[in-house]
Amino acid sequence: MKYPLAEHLNYTVIRLSGEIDLSESPNVRKQLLDTIRKNQHLLVDLSAVDYIDSSGVACLVEGLQTARALHQTFALVGVSHAALQVLKLARLDSVFDIYASLEEVTE
Amino acid sequence: MKKLARIHFLSLADRLQPLRDYIRQLLSAENIDQKKIAQIVLAVNEACMNCIQHAFRGQGTGEIIIEFWLENKQLLIRILDDAPQVTLQNIRSRPLQEVRPGGLGVHLIHQLMDSVEYAHRQDQPGNSLEIRTALNNGSENTQDVL
Questions:
Q1: Window 52-71 of A, Cβ < 8 Å to B
Q2: Whether A97 contacts A66, CB under 8 Å
Q3: Mutate to test the interface with A, among B15, B17, B34 (most CBs of A within 10 A)
Q4: Which residues of B, range 109-128, sit inside 8 Å of A by Cβ?
Q5: B56 to B59, B81, B98: CA distances (angstroms)
Q6: pLDDT tens digit sequence for B33-72
Q7: Cβ neighbours of residue B95 under 8 Å, at least 6 residues apart?
């Protein structure tokens, strides 16, 4: 599945959706890293994610670390209840910058 | 003990989505609340993922069996594989202060379930995992999880 990209201010927004699991996470990982490596500040919209497991969370962590190494922004937006609870269980909710919605994101 | 189901599936990543759907339907039919079902689905998914990734090491030739049992307001789930036996002492959560990809599955299972017991199968070569969760107050020890 190709996730839609959009522009917001000087950020690229990727809107993930559905169930991010072991079969889907390699695809998610590739799209996140491809975007970051194009020197783009990335916002990951998780509002339409119904389910995420530890393989999906690992993609987000790798994206964050890759972006940090390149001195780029990597943040989460509109994190769904299901995704937020898994991040909390993994004690990663405080590791990511999280915005309630795109309106909260400023330059 | 009341047996709810015994599911057989191949150790392939693309089998996890239909497995999760099946578990949701199975437990909804038992009137288990949706928050508890979400916890169980995540825990079972993580356990099966560990089988696929670590026990079978990505080789999709094995079989995973999952049994669901109801016992005194507890749900017992037994996950059996026919993979080479793993070293049980190596199954452990990693320190969470290390922010890095991977290695979260065991931690999540322990967070979500009341008891977690890994063993080698007695009936044939392979591994087993027994997890239990209370159905009346199961969310208490996981705070507002899922």
A1: 53-55, 57-59, 61-62, 64-65
A2: no
A3: B17
A4: 111-112
A5: 5, 9, 26
A6: 999 999 999 999 999 999 998 888 866 679 999 999 999 8
A7: none
Residues near A79 by Cβ (< 8 Å), separated by ≥ 6?
A46, A47, A49, A87, A98
Query: 10 Å Cβ neighbour count for B127?
Result: 23
Q: Give the residue extent of every domain in chain B.
A: 2-142
Q: Where does A5-102 sit in CATH, by number? A: 3.30.750.24
* Contacts with A, B 3-32, CB within 8 Å: 13-14, 16-17, 20
Is A21 touching B (CB cutoff 8 A)? yes
pTM beyond 0.90: the answer is yes
| Whole-number pLDDT of residue B112 | 97
Confidence of residue B141 (pLDDT cuts 50, 70, 90): very low
Query: Tokens 């609870």, residue?
Result: A85
Residue of A49, A68, A79, A85 to mutate for B, most B C-beta atoms under 10 A: A85
> What CATH number has the domain spanning B2-142?
3.30.565.10
> Is the predicted ipTM greater than 0.95, yes or no?
no
Token output for A73: 């922004």
Interchain proximity B99–A65, CB inside 8 Å:
yes
